[in-house]
Design brief:
The protein is an all-alpha fold. The chain contains seven helices and no strands.
């Protein structure tokens, strides 16, 4: 069996001729949604799976499933991960109840609750 050497020019020509291998345009790139990768966010923060799950109140099994590709985060979870990626300290502060910045909200009196 004879092996042939493919040059970069030949590979590029063959790639352009393949309808399934059309390169993405800038418009395509702008249209694509960015899905945050859980493992990338967690590693960037320098946290173990257990520490990340505890800090951001995500079930450890769910986090493992996302990272191992068994399940994809649903749209709400993807937005939550994006929020963690953009403002990790603020999300942790809000979730863990830092009372220095957050205001406590009292429950309404029974007379203030609307009746349906």
């Amino acid at each position: 069996m004879k092996q042939t050497v493919t040059t970069r020019k030949t590979a590029s020509r063959k790639g352009r001729a393949n309808d399934d291998a059309v390169p993405l345009t800038q418009a395509d790139m702008n249209r694509m949604r960015i899905t945050p990768r859980t493992v990338t966010i967690r590693r960037a923060l320098g946290l173990t799976q257990r520490a990340f799950a505890r800090r951001y109140q995500i079930a450890l099994g769910t986090l493992r499933d996302w990272e191992q590709g068994r399940y994809e985060p649903d749209p709400m979870a993807r937005n939550y991960l994006l929020l963690i990626a953009r403002a990790p300290a603020e999300v942790a502060r809000i979730l863990n109840g830092d009372s220095t910045r957050s205001r406590k909200v009292r429950a309404p009196r029974e007379s203030q609750v609307p009746r349906l």
